[in-house]
Amino acid sequence: MELNDFKSNDGITWCPGCGDFGILNALKKALVTLDKSPKDVLLVSGIGQAAKLPHYIKCNCFNGLHGRAIPPAVAAKIANRNLTVIVTTGDGDCYGEGGNHLLHNIRRNVDITVIVHDNQIYGLTKGQASPTTDTGYQTKVQLNGVIQEPMHPLEMAIALGCGYVARGYSADSEHLSWLITEGVRHKGFSLIDVLQPCVSFNKKNTYEWYAKRIYKVNTEPSYKPEDKMAAYQKASEWGEKIPIGIIYKCDKPSYEDKSGINNIAPLVDADIKDINIGAVLEEFI
Amino acid sequence: MDNEITLRITGEAGQGIQTIGAGLCNLFKRCGLHIFASQDYMSRIRGGNNFFQIRVSDKPVYSSSQRPDIAVTLDKNSIAIHKTQLSNRGIMVLDKQKFGISDEDPAFFDAPLYNLANQIGGNELFVNSVSCGVVAGMIRLNFGLVQDVIKAIFENKSEEIIKKNVDAARAGFDFSSANFKFDKFKLGGAAVAPRDNLAMNGNEAIALAAIRAGCKFYSAYPMSPSTSIMDMMAHSAAKFNIVVEQAEDEIAAINMVIGASFAGVRSMAATSGGGFALMVEGLSLAGMTETPIVVVDAQRPGPATGFPTRTEQADLDFLIHAGHGEFARAIYTPGSIEEAFYLTVKAFNIAEKYQIPVLIMTDQHLADSVRDIEPFDLKNAVVQRHIISKEDSGKITGYKRYQFTESGVSSRAIPSWINDVIYADSDEHNEEGHITEDADMRVKMVDKRFYKKMAGLAQEVEKPLAYNLAKADTILVGFGSTYGVIKEACGFCGKEFGYIHLPQVWPFPALEVSLMLKGKRNIITVENNAGAQLARLIFRETGIRVKSSILRYDGRPFDLDYLIGRIKETGR
Lengths: 285, 572
Prior knowledge:
The complex is a heterodimer of chains A (285) and B (572). Chain A has 285 residues and is an alpha/beta fold. Chain A has a single domain (3-282), classed as 3-Layer(aba) Sandwich (Rossmann fold). Chain A contains ten helices and eight strands. An eight-stranded mixed β-sheet of chain A has the order 2-1-3-4-6-5-8-7, with helices on both faces. In chain A, strand 5 (164-169), helix 6 and strand 6 form a beta-alpha-beta unit. The longest helix of chain A has 14 residues, at 20-33. Chain B is an alpha/beta fold and 572 residues long. Chain B has four domains: 4-179, Pyruvate-ferredoxin oxidoreductase, PFOR, domain III (Pyruvate-ferredoxin Oxidoreductase, domain 3); 199-380, Rossmann fold (3-Layer(aba) Sandwich), CATH 3.40.50; 390-459, no CATH class; 465-570, Rossmann fold (3-Layer(aba) Sandwich), CATH 3.40.50.920. Chain B is 40% helix and 19% strand. Chain B is built from 20 helices and 21 strands. In chain B, helix 17 links the parallel strand 17 (474-479) and strand 18 (497-502). The two termini of chain B are 23 Å apart. The interface between A and B is large, with 55 and 68 residues.
C-alpha cells in the first residue's frame, strides 16, 4: 500500500494551518507502514473538527454522534475482529461529552486505537473551554478565565490500567505516525493524546509555545514505559517541559482474548439462516 | 368460571415466592392444565410484600383473575393484606403457630408450614417445598407429579437436598390431604393441555426469538422489567456464539448495537422507559445512518424512576415520536407470548430490509407473566437477509452507501466484504456518505429516509386482530399486553361485544382500523395509561373519535374481574 491508496476525494474543511493536517498525514503514513488495506480499516468518529478526519482518508467510516465514537467502534470490532478499528476524536468529544465511554472502554480493553486531537479548546462551536483547557484561559464564555482544573487524560488512563498510553504532537508527523503504528499493533485499548494547536481559537498553546516545551521520552535510555509509577509521574509533567512518546505500556489479555471471541469465527461470518433453538426451547417444556 | 382456580403465594421479598410459583406452574402444566401466572413485586431485595399468582384451568387462559381461591401466606403481614381479596370460596393457608395468631376464621386453613420445614429439612427454606405439597394436596393432585417437579427444580443439587425437598413436599401433601376436608378445588374434567406445551414469559419469548433471528450482539444496562431478556441472552450466549455486553449506560448500549450492526451483525438492546429516554439520540442516529437495530422497551410506570417493578402503557406517544428529526421506524406491540416471539423475528427482518430502527414495546405485565403455549412454528420464524452477501460482495466497486432508489432503500454492503470502502454519517450526507450542506440533496435524503421508507413499511404492517366485529355494537380496542384480558372479557360480556387488538402501532394501520370501526358508535379503548394515548392516536390517524376509554394507571395490570367491572360501569 502507498499513501495514494488512502487518498479521499472529499474536500477538506479545516482551517489553513490546523494541527489536524499533521494528524491526518501521520495516520496515513501509519496505515502504509502497517500495510493495511483501506477496506479492512474502520475509522469511527463523533462530532467536532477531529471527527471529520475519516472523510479525508479512504477507509471505512462511521461518523456517529458527539461523544459517542468509542461505543460503536468497540462493537464493530467485536462484530468483526478482522477490522482494524481506529477512533479519531477530540478533547471535547472524548474527554467531555463521551467521558463515561472512555473510562469504561479502557476497562473493557477491546483492541482499538483512540486518537484524541487535543487542542484544549472547542473549535467547531467557536472557542469555548474544553476539559483540557488550562486554568485561567479566557474565552467568550469563561470571561474571567477557566476556574476548573483541567482533566489529565494520560494520568487517568494509566490509573485505569490502559495498556498503551501515548502523547504525540501534531507538528511532528513522523513521531506521531510511529505512535499510531505502535498503538494499532498493541493488542488492546490504545489511547493516543495528540497535542494540536488550534490556530483560530487557542491563542495560548500555539506552535511556538509547544516548540519550546516538547521533548521525547523514548529517546531517554533510562525511561521504561513499563514502569507504572514512573509513567504516572511522566504523564503528570505539564508546564515548562512537556513529554511526548509512549508514556505507558503493559501487555495484558484483551477483551477478545477474555470473552472467547478470538476462538470463534468473526460474528459477522456466522451463518444465521436456520438457527436451531430446539435445545433452549426444551428448557421451557 | 368453573374448572379453574386462582392461586396466590405471598410473603416478603427473598422468601422464595418465585421458586414456589415456578414449581407450581410446572406442576400444573405436567398435569395437563393451562396456566397464566403473573407477578406483583416491590422494588426491593428483602422484605415488603410480594405475590405470585397463578390462574389454572382446563381451558386456555389469557389473563389474571383478581381474587384468589387459595392464598398461601409465608409471613404474618400477608394475612391482612390479602384476606379481603379472597374469592367467595377463598381459603387462606397460614401457619398460626409461626405467625403467633389464634384468630378463628372459616377462610383459614392452618398448616404447620414452618414446623414441617424445620422438622424435615432442618431449616425454614424448605417451606417452599412444604407449600407446594400443601397446595397439591388441597386440589387433590397426584403426588407422583409433585415429586417429579421437585426433582426437576433441584436437579443440579445434591441427592440429599433433593430427598429433603421431596420429603418436605410429601409432608405438606399428606397434611392437606388429611386435614383439608373440601373437594371444592379439585379440578374436574380431563386434562387437555398438550404436555409438550411451553411455559414462558414475554421476555423469554423475545430473547428466544432474537436468538432464532440471528442476533449475535446484545448490549444493555440492567433495568426492570427488561433485565430478564439480558439474563436469557447471557444464558444462551455460549451455545449460539452471541456476545452479550453489559454497557456502562443505555447511551453506550444503543451506540454499541448500532456499531455492531454497521459491521454486519444483527444486534439488539432492551430497556425500560427511563433507559429508552437515554437511547433516544442513538435512535435518531440509527435513522440517519440507516443502520438496522432492534430495541425493546419493556414499559414501567413513569415519569422518572416511577414504579420500577410495575406495569404501564404510557410510552406509546413517546416511542412514536422519540428522536429528533424525521425518520422511518416500526413499532410492534405484542399482546401475547406468541406475538412477542414472532414479532421479534419480524422486527429483525424488517429492520434489516428497511435499514431502520424497529422498536418492540411491551410492559412489565407481558414481560413477567408466564403462560403455557403451543410449541412455536419455526417455519413462521425465518430469517430474511437484506444485505449484499459475502459471495456477491467481491464484485462491488464504486459503492455508494446511500444510493437513491425507488424504495428509498440502498443496497447494504458489509465493511471488509466489498472491495471498496463504506462511509456512513450522522451529518446530512450525499449518496457516498460524505457530509453535505446542499439543499436539494437534503430534500432527497429526507424523502429517502422518511417518506419512501414509511410507504414501504405501510405495506408490511401487522394486521390488527379483530373479533366479533360484525355482530358487536361495542368494540373494545387495545394494544400490547391488554390483548389477553380484552379477549377473555369480551367472551364474558356477551355477543354485543367485539374487540380489536393492535400488534403494531407504527406505522399505524389506519386503513384497516378505519374499515373495522366504520359505523361503530360504541368504541372503547382499554389502556394502561392516564392519557388515553391510543384513543388520541386513533383520532389523529383515522379521524375516528372513540366514545370512551377505560384507563388504569395505578401500576397494576388489568385483570379479568377488574376489566369486566369497568366495562359494566362504563355502560354501553
